[in-house]
Design goal:
The protein is of the alpha/beta class and 417 residues long. Helix content is 30%, strand content 26%. It has two domains: 3-19 and 231-416, UDP-n-acetylglucosamine1-carboxyvinyl-transferase, Chain; 22-228, Alpha-beta prism (UDP-n-acetylglucosamine1-carboxyvinyl-transferase, Chain), CATH 3.65.10.10.
Length: 417
């Protein structure tokens, strides 16, 4: 099994190109199933979750090939409606094929999803909303058996709580439903806006009618489309924090700074010097890091996917900080590993008290999920001595060429078998 060796105490310096967004690519790949034609996608990240999703599409009958860094999806003969556990078990986004399969064929059998073990991710919000479009379903031995006897029929749906996945599934499904669907209490993450832009460009009739409300008039079919995926805001945030942790000097390129305004403002408050250009952020880390209180929240709040990374930085602050995790109830699994490196973090329910003035020391470490694994790299980059990070298959699910990108800006990091 592969692991990473990291030799710490180097300041990162140079520039990093941010890849396409994993979290935008996955629903757009699922939405491509609505088409009987060809879909061309640019700026897809080459990470494990994308590989898994394209394998899932192939198993459903899509023909897929990469050509000149462009993914070409040919759905002219796509006709299968069964998403197996073997493909969905490592990735929660697998449930997103349920909406398009129901919209296209009126029935589907889809495995309940897997992914990182960071808390419950109930699909009942998806299923309750789909039932309001006329879907009947039952769950048998870990599979959702769903049918829409009269096809999907537009409806007014208010989500019981804000859910990124359920919002995506319903937007995709309603795009081919008969009549009009009004979705309210929607998640408004930039990746959802990217999905909506993709669907509009493919001929769907979708309009934002309020901050968290959408009006979708169903269409009969979608057309050929060529689309470029947005940048990965979580990857961008991770490298911004890496610069702050190592007192580095980095230019983060291929970004839209206004999309990550919350994260930039927090890093400024903590003490980083940040200069913004059109598609670039220049950050210089400060030796003196100020403490701060943070809570994770749905967009435009501070993202749960950057909570582990910012915790590493707050270990270097002048006083103690507090982090409240309001999205997932089991997302502090990195804390035990950070404490083994010298951090002083205590947990009380969904709150973490992070004591500052920590000097990290290298250690043998175990990654538990995607974002936890990258937080260990950030701590290791700042630590004295060598760290070894095990179970890095979590990392490969969501970060493209992370060692190459870090090596290029001065990190001492290598992958070993």
């Amino acid at each position: 099994m592969q692991k990473l060796e990291v030799f710490g105490a180097n300041k990162l310096k140079g520039q990093i190109e941010i890849s396409g967004s994993k979290n935008a690519s996955l629903p757009i790949l699922a939405a491509s199933l609505l088409s009987y034609k060809k879909v061309y996608l640019n700026n897809l990240p080459r990470v494990k979750d994308i590989e898994t999703m394209t394998s899932l599409l192939k198993s459903l009958g899509s023909k897929i090939k990469f050509k000149n860094n462009k993914l070409i999806i040919d759905n002219t003969k796509q006709n299968k409606r069964f998403a197996s556990y073997s493909l969905v078990k490592t990735m929660r986004a697998g449930i997103l094929v349920l909406g398009p399969l129901l919209a296209k064929f009126g029935n589907a059998k889809v495995s309940l999803p897997g992914g990182c073990a960071i808390g419950t991710r109930p699909v009942d919000i998806h299923l309750d909303a789909l039932s309001k479009l006329g879907v009947k379903y039952k769950i048998i031995q870990g599979y959702v058996y769903a049918t829409a006897p009269k096809g999907l029929i537009g409806s007014k749906i208010r989500f019981s709580k804000i859910s990124v996945g359920a919002t995506e599934n319903l937007i995709i499904a309603a795009s081919l439903a008969k009549g009009t669907t009004i979705l309210s209490n929607c998640a408004i993450e930039p990746e959802i806006k990217d999905l909506v832009n993709f669907l509009i460009k493919s001929g769907c009739n979708i309009k934002w009618i309020a901050k968290r409300s959408l009006k979708i008039n169903g269409v009969k079919e979608i057309s050929d489309i060529s689309y470029s995926i947005m940048f990965d805001r979580i990857e961008a945030g991770t490298y911004l924090i890496a610069a702050a942790v190592t007192e580095g000097n980095l230019k983060i390129k291929n970004v839209i700074p206004k999309i990550i305004k919350t994260e930039i403002n927090i890093l400024k408050k903590i003490g980083a010097k940040i200069n913004i250009k059109k598609n670039e952020i220049h950050i210089i880390g400060n030796k003196k890091i100020k403490s701060i209180n943070i809570k994770t929240a749905a967009y435009p709040g501070f993202p749960t996917d950057l909570q582990a990374q910012i915790m590493v930085l707050l270990c270097k602050a002048n006083k103690h900080s507090n982090i409240k995790e309001d999205i997932f109830e089991n997302r502090f699994m990195h804390v035990a590993e950070l404490n083994r490196m010298g951090a002083k973090i205590s947990i009380n329910g969904n709150k973490a008290k992070v004591n500052g003035n920590v000097n990290f020391a290298g250690a043998e470490l175990m990654a538990t999920d995607l974002r936890a694994s990258v937080s260990l790299i950030l701590a290791a980059l700042n630590a004295k001595g060598k760290s070894v990070i095990n179970r890095i298959y979590h990392l490969d699910r969501g970060y493209e060429n992370i060692e190459k990108k870090l090596k290029k800006v001065g990190a001492k990091i290598r992958r070993v078998n």
